[in-house]
Amino acid sequence: MFIDSARIRVSAGNGGDGAIAFHREKYVASGGPDGGDGGRGGNVVFRVDDNLSTLSDFRYKRKYAAGNGESGKGKNCSGRNGNDLVIRVPRGTLLKDAATGRIVADLSADGPQIIAKGGRGGWGNAHFATPVRQAPRFAKPGAPGESLDLLLELKLLADVALVGYPNVGKSTLISAVSEAKPQVADYPFTTLSPVLGVVRLDADRSFVMADIPGLIEGASEGTGLGHEFLRHVERCRLLVHLVDVSGSEGRDPKQDFQAINAELRKYNPHLMERPMLVAGNKCDLATEQQIAEFRRFVEQKGYEFFPIMAAIRYQVDPLLDRISELLAKLPPIRRFEPEPPPEKAPSGGGHEVSIVRKDDGAYSVQAPWIGKTMRSVNFADSDSFQYFQQLLAKTGVFDALRRAGIKEGDTVEIYGLEFDFVE
Asked: Phi/psi at 24 (nearest 5 deg)?
């Protein structure tokens, strides 16, 4: 089954906590602190795999997580780093932030791309030893890894896109000029997924052609199958608009041409800025007058016209030669540039704090990062508690309390810890 979009959540690994340990060895006096650092959390890495052609692997598994770093150990032993998670996707996959639509990465080139970074490991208590504080009984916790909800969109990498109404001969043409073998039948919507084919003109000239499943009027708003595959047209450098010039399906070829162009314009106005060639197929079923009238109609709009019979490859070579000539002058296949994340307003070095006045008059400090830090603080130890107070002052918690109107002697509550505020 061809799946070209998916939504997943990726989570990098958390950093390991630093260790609280002291060197104890017979005949060694005053060993001192020797708690090691925590290991780094694993990254989430995306890599292109040319053996994949759809995003079907992401249809059932939606959550992906890298390994966490191990906590530090005694004897200054650092914890092991978490294992990176490598996610393989087809070439041409676009990653977007599901919350904002921001482009995170375009997986069109070789080489791995780190999408979510693992958290740093926390420092062990050996880092906090000073001539004054010789036996620190606290350490830093590991930092959390990054998490993202991602939208995955596969946009095929092709030089030329065949567009047009169903049953105008797109599958017939691509099967005649390449090794691609799409299903061909005399009923609409035979092709249910995009088909890629490599067209080789000679040893030095070749290009990739994509057969985009039949568009119909209203495709940009979800009608028919075409709306599911319009995204695959976006990367193509050149459009070939195939029209049944004979009107054998009971439709007017001029109206078909205008309707499909209108749908392309509605989906993405920039698509109509791409070079376009018009191929009138099924000329064996059309009269000379029909072909001549449609030629005049197309050329008046500024497009080149090529009458062909795809089934027997009649006059197809002039069309292919012109495609090759135009591609040689056009820029390479479009790559989407990643967009930077929105800048966050400065808040005490990234330490966000909110103060809430409780009914009993106490000031409640709410900040997720404080709760994680408190896990590594020994409040029964004066040095550890003093370090915690210094951290609150450095990160602007005390300033936030003063702005909230706190006075000396008022009660401060931080995740179950209560103490009197002293200036």
From this structure: -125, 115
In angstroms, rounded to a whole number, what is the distance separating the alpha carbons of residues 303 and 294?
11
CA dist., res. 292 & res. 22, Å (int): 93
Task: Please classify residue 60 by burial: count the beta carbons closer than 10 Å to its beta carbon, then call 0-12 exposed, 13-18 middle and 19+ buried.
Answer: exposed
Give tens-digit pLDDT for 282-325.
998 989 999 999 999 999 999 999 999 998 999 999 999 999 99
* Same fold yes or no, 1-156 and 160-327: no
Q: Both ends of the chain: CA-CA distance in Å?
A: 68
- Helix %, strand %, coil % of the chain (to 5): 25, 25, 50
Token reading at 251: 């439709």
> In this structure, are residues 62 and 151 in contact, taking their beta carbons and an 8 Å threshold?
no
Q: Which residue type does 220 have?
A: S
Residue identified by tokens 């990465």 is: 105
Q: What are phi and psi of 331, to 5 degrees?
A: -65, 165
- Structure token pair of residue 201: 């003109």
| In the chain, where the domains are located | 1-156, 160-327, 354-420
When pLDDT is cut at 50, 70 and 90, the band that residue 217 belongs to is low
Contacts of 153 (CB under 8 A, 6+ apart): 4, 5, 93, 94, 96, 231
Number of C-beta neighbours around residue 388 at 10 A: 20
Tokens of 275: 């070079």
Statement: 354-420 belongs to CATH 3.40.50.300: no
Q: How far is it, in rounded angstroms, from Cα 33 to Cα 21?
A: 6
CA distance 281 to 168: 7
Tokens of 386: 């003093």
Of 226, 212, 215, 216, which Cα lies nearest the Cα of 182? 212
- pLDDT, mean of residues 247-271: 86
CATH topology of domain 160-327: Rossmann fold (3.40.50)
- Domain 1-156 class in CATH: mainly beta
